[in-house]
């Protein structure tokens, strides 16, 4: 991969009107923006020096305008409403951020121009008024994934009236993967499937290449947006699930997406992320939630440990089904690495774009698309009242 020189940056992004140095991205001069952030440090505080330091570090190392988070006072939000969605240790709210995120740097006035009223989702970390050092350590490790192209965009952090921390995310107009399929009645072809899958694999690749683990990958943590007719997928909750006020070795997750070795008591690993990725592959191909027709109870857990897996749906391309089944293998060592998944899904995305070069991959997906179109039907499906698709403590089941 070639490295851009200062001349290249200046040619592509121009030079800063204030210091005349090359910008490194759209409207972004590293020196001037970092100086602005540092001068503003005195104007805000979360009342927790550990949180303040994490936010400051993202701002001092930001290379573009989406590469950092900020502290946002709770008074800046209006129409705050509990959505009713929750996980084992979090609850979700919708709101309108009246000022909106910093959108463009005015180099001559040396001020940020904000976007204005912006729909946001606030994820409240329950019982986070007394954060453990272990969670702060996780937050620092995973902070780079709060604002990154493959991840749900996190604008910043705030604190509610009970002093619980809330993460402020961009609102994605199609919701999570479950909500998307619950409400999507149009034809959903293999081109869209592999495009979403390639984005997810890119995000997991970035986590794994740093030696980290997502640990809670499931349909509720994949956000979908329809942007001008193009579907975009983003990952959320990377490394940040679990209790925030006490250390715990309990198992938390969504039963169908948890690898069998984790259900038996092992810690989450990169290989268990791959198992969860395989289940995401099944959801995308089937258009429904896994094991939606039955309780997610100890019986299901024992069956998954014993080898139960969802079967590939009819007319799934064989190359897709083979990769999915490898991801779902019992032995973690027999599952593919994320580097292989990333390379394959990128190749598939290229083979299913609007004007692909003819290939066996293209033919296989085209054939599957024709079969899929012939059998298109509404995906609204009965969901058993004890089928649970939010994260919870699995030791209590």
Automatic annotation (TrEMBL):
It comes from Rhizophagus clarus. GO terms for molecular function: ATP binding; protein serine/threonine kinase activity. This is Kinase-like domain-containing protein. Residues 78-349 form the Protein kinase domain. InterPro entries: Kinase-like_dom_sf (IPR011009), Prot_kinase_dom (IPR000719), Ser-Thr/Tyr_kinase_cat_dom (IPR001245), Ser/Thr_Kinases-Pseudokinases (IPR051681). Keywords: ATP-binding, Kinase, Nucleotide-binding, Transferase. Pfam families: PK_Tyr_Ser-Thr. PROSITE patterns: PROTEIN_KINASE_DOM (PS50011). It comes from the Eukaryota.
């Amino acid at each position: 991969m070639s490295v851009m020189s200062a001349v290249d940056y200046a040619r592509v992004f121009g030079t800063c009107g204030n210091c005349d140095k090359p910008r490194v991205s759209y409207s972004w001069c590293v020196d001037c923006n970092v100086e602005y952030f540092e001068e503003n440090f005195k104007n805000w505080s979360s009342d927790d020096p550990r949180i303040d330091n994490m936010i400051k570090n993202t701002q001092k190392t930001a290379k573009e305008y989406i590469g950092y988070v900020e502290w946002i006072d709770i008074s800046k939000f209006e129409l705050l409403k509990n959505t009713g969605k929750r996980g084992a240790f979090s609850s979700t709210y919708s709101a309108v951020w009246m000022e909106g995120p910093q959108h463009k740097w005015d180099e001559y006035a040396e001020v940020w121009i904000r976007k204005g009223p912006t729909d946001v989702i606030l994820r409240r970390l329950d019982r986070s008024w007394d954060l453990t050092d272990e969670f702060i350590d996780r937050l620092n490790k995973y902070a780079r994934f709060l604002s990154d192209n493959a991840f749900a965009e996190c604008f910043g952090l705030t604190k509610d009236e009970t002093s619980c921390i809330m993460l402020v995310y961009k609102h994605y107009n199609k919701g999570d993967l479950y909500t998307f399929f619950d409400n999507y009645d149009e034809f959903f072809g293999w081109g869209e499937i592999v495009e979403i899958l390639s984005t997810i694999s890119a995000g997991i690749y970035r986590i794994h290449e740093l030696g980290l683990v997502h640990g809670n990958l499931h349909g509720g943590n994949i956000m979908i947006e329809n942007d001008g007719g193009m579907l975009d997928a983003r990952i959320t909750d990377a490394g940040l699930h679990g209790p925030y006020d006490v250390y715990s070795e309990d198992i938390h997750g969504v039963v169908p997406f948890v690898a069998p070795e984790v259900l038996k008591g092992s810690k989450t690993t990169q290989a268990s992320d791959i198992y969860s990725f395989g289940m995401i592959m099944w959801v995308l191909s089937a258009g429904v939630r896994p094991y939606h027709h039955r309780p997610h109870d100890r019986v299901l857990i024992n069956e998954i440990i014993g080898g139960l897996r969802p079967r590939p749906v009819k007319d799934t391309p064989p190359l897709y089904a083979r990769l999915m089944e490898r991801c779902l293998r019992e032995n973690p060592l027999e599952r593919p690495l994320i580097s292989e998944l990333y390379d394959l899904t990128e190749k598939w995305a290229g083979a299913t774009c609007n004007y692909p070069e003819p290939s066996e991959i293209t033919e296989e997906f085209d054939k599957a698309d024709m079969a899929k179109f012939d059998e298109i039907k509404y995906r609204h499906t009965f969901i058993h009242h004890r089928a649970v698709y939010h994260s919870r403590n699995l030791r209590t089941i």
